[in-house]
Amino acid sequence: MNHNTEQKEWLVIVNPNAGNGKGQKDWSKISEFLKKEDVLFKVKFTERKGHAIDLAVNAISEGFRNIITVGGDGTLNEVLNGVFTNGSCLTTDITLAMIPVGTGNDWSKMFGISLDYEKAVKIISDNKRLLHDVGLVSFNNGGVKTNRYFINIAGLGFESVVVRKTNIQKDNGSGGKLIYFYNLLTSLLSYKNTRAEIDIDGEIIHADVFSLNVGNGRYCGGGMRQTPRALPDDGLLDVTIIKGMGKFEIIRNLKILYDGTILRHPKVDGYKCKNIKVTSSSVMYAEADGESLGQTPAEFSIIPEGVYIVYGTKLIP
User: Fold this and answer.
1) Residues 237, 114, 177, CA angle at the centre, nearest 5°?
2) Using one digit for the tens of pLDDT, what is the confidence trace for 224-268?
3) How far apart are CA 158 and CA 284, in angstroms?
4) Which of 70, 177, 188, 282 has the most CB atoms less than 10 A away?
5) What's the Rg (C-alpha) of the chain?
6) Nearest-CA neighbor of 92 among 124, 134, 56, 137?
7) For residue range 95-125, what is the model confidence (pLDDT) as tens digits?
8) Domain 134-304 classification at class level
9) Domain extents in the chain
10) pTM of the entire structure?
11) Structural fold of domain 3-127
């Protein structure tokens, strides 16, 4: 029996705090658009960090195979982790869709998913689907090796420091587009490069690392393009390593973080691989899809064709 034809109903997981409270504020509008497009759904609201993981696991065990997240990249990341730790079905039996209301909305940008709710809902009712690769990062969390799945971009180093600061401020109720950029500039002043050993599919590199990004997707940090050539369905991770750059050099080159030309800089190296391991002399923090994790040693790998997603437009390789 094919569950997908039988179970047409969507579970909508709403993060009420996403986008500075927009999840809560705009839900009635969004639900009207869903009804207008005849999208059958039940709704659940997250109540705490990590709650969307449990909601997704429970929904899947109840027979749901289609999940819409109303939130930001962090909520989508939690739902993905629920999908990959569910004990009920294959991850490829699941379809994920998104109505972006977060601060960054980096993942949805890649698929032409509109910030206009009516258009985002239309994409869901059109239900064009593709099999999306999924990343897996394992890291040290208080001495325990811990795993986290990610759909968009994970990273180590500078990026994660900025993400940590931003997440603390978000938890304290101050968020917004500019806070990330502000944290980026203030973090630069105190940040130091870290000596690391990097194993990329068996090739060993030693470098003073400013930041290391591992992507299925192209956008992170509210529009930065750290992995500008990444494809969500090529079975490979795109890795960008910024090496030995001083803070003033970074400030002078800030635009390359945003304009897609980052890989042309002589101190930036790009790779495509299936597996990357990083050990470092001093601690490097990890993040995935904008969620703060533990620290090095860390390992990133790819699960090709991990889950179905609903898209608006497709990336051209």
Assistant:
1) 75
2) 899 999 999 999 999 999 998 888 888 888 899 889 999 999 999
3) 8
4) 70
5) 19
6) 134
7) 999 999 987 789 999 999 999 999 999 999 9
8) mainly beta
9) 3-127, 134-304
10) 0.92
11) Rossmann fold (3.40.50)
